[in-house]
Amino acid sequence: MTIALQTRPVLAPNLRLQTDRVSGEPVLLYPEGVLELNATAHEIIRRCDGATTVEAMVAELTREYDAPIEEVRADVLECLRELSGRNFILSQP
Question: How far is 87 from 81, CA to CA, in rounded Å?
């Protein structure tokens, strides 16, 4: 699946981002289970609010982590493709 830079991803309505009570780590809750998130995925999912474009996410994360924009863009797009493939995010044009 192709994710455009102007897309504004949002979490699917049946998902919830929260902190695991036992581990203190970020998790994504969905009807069939729990997805433990690494720091990168957590930062990306936090920005899936339906208003922030993929391009803006990349720019924010590039500044925040002082990382090369190409690497950040590749990581963000890969994460969003995986989430989209699992129907965990919806894309707003």
Answer: 10
